Amino acid sequence: MKAREKLNSRAGFTLAETLLAVLILLLVSTIVATGMPVARTAYEKVVLTSNAETLLTTAISTLRNELGTAWKVEQPSANVVVYFSASTGTRSKLYIDGGTVKLLDFAEATSLDALLGDDQNKAATTARDLVFQSDIDRLGKLSLKAGSITLDKSAKTVSISGLKVFSASNAELASLDSLVIDVFSCEDA
What we know:
The chain is an alpha+beta fold. The protein has one domain (35-182). The protein has helices at 2-8, 15-68, 112-115; strands at 71-77, 80-84, 91-97, 100-106, 125-127, 131-133, 141-145, 148-152, 157-166, 172-182.
């Protein structure tokens, strides 16, 4: 009978019970609020690593497509490979600029001097930097860097060593030691 009387009673919570409930709610809210930045940081790290691996895979695919069908490939200087691109139908240059891998397409009639940067023969160019911009602005731009680019005319291969993806803060996120790509034809080979 006492249980039924308590249920029918119109008495509310005591002040102590209300304060205890508010204190518990405050503690849970504090724990959740403290964990949010940690969760966000972990999420951003996973997204950044995933984007870096995507960039590396896309860059490898692009380089294989670009150089795998290239003809008249030549290496006029260290870390520079000049070739005719089957994908664009133009003369192109793959090179390392300050460690960053760059890809340029030139007008068909461009001389080799213009490809190498001679100011007297300025040519229309289209830059195709191998970079990736994240959907999350604060994560910034990823860049693809390499140690060296070497043409082996006898084996008809282009070797790119030390491919690495770096974040805007210069943290290394993904890497590939070496990439060897067979080319269609080399100059004087």
